Amino acid sequence: MASATELTFKDVAKHSTKSDLYVVIDDKVYNLSAFIDEHPGGEEVMMDLAGTDATDAFEDVGHSDEAREIRDKLFVADLKRMPGDPKPTDHHSAPTPVETPRGSNTALYAVIIIGGIVASGVYQYLQGQQEKNVL
Ligand code: HEM
């Protein structure tokens, strides 16, 4: 049995009605019942997530600091993840940089530079030939 300050996903799932509405955000459990009628985003979005992990939805909206302060006041308990529960989504770490294929870029620049040198060499050679022909 989970202690008073720790709830499992199974416990949270039991609170999925408008007057008893828990969600999980960042591994913390919040009771949204008192706020649902005032939510600027409407009650439907909250009802859809009742009793589940709302972290992605909450973060995707880009809630303000004020929204986060309201959320913190609705804190009920920490989430206790059990084996088999989905892994937490981490919204705090910097996004993974998109890997650029450096190797192929360098090769491309090399081809352009070498191509340019060869072309200018050929041009100068031809100019020389032309001058010879004129003389
Ligand atoms: C602890 C839970 C939540 C709190 C305290 C909260 C609070 C707020 C607040 C204060 C706003 C006004 C804009 C802002 O200050 O960012 C807002 C907007 C909004 N919220 Fe939430 N929210 C919560 C959860 C959610 C969830 C789970 C969703 C699901 C998608 C959601 C969807 C939205 C949307 C769509 C808006 C934009 C409304 C608009 O600008 O028309 N919110 N929320």
Automatic annotation (TrEMBL):
Database matches in PROSITE patterns: CYTOCHROME_B5_1 (PS00191), CYTOCHROME_B5_2 (PS50255)
GO CC, any one term: endoplasmic reticulum membrane
InterPro entries found in the cross-reference section: Cyt_B5-like_heme/steroid-bd (IPR001199), Cyt_B5-like_heme/steroid_sf (IPR036400), Cyt_B5_heme-BS (IPR018506), Cytochrome_b5 (IPR050668)
GO molecular function: heme binding; metal ion binding
Tree of life domain: Eukaryota
Keyword field: Electron transport, Endoplasmic reticulum, Heme, Iron, Membrane, Metal-binding, Microsome, Transmembrane, Transmembrane helix, Transport
Subcellular location: Endoplasmic reticulum membrane; Microsome membrane
UniProt topology in membrane: Single-pass membrane protein
Annotated GO biological process: sterol biosynthetic process
Cited Pfam families: Cyt-b5 (PF00173)
Transmembrane spans: 107-126
Basic and acidic residues bias spans: 81-93
Region (Disordered): 81-102
Every Cytochrome b5 heme-binding domain range: 4-80
Record-stated family: Belongs to the cytochrome b5 family.
UniProt name for this protein: Cytochrome b5 heme-binding domain-containing protein
Protein's organism: Cylindrodendrum hubeiense
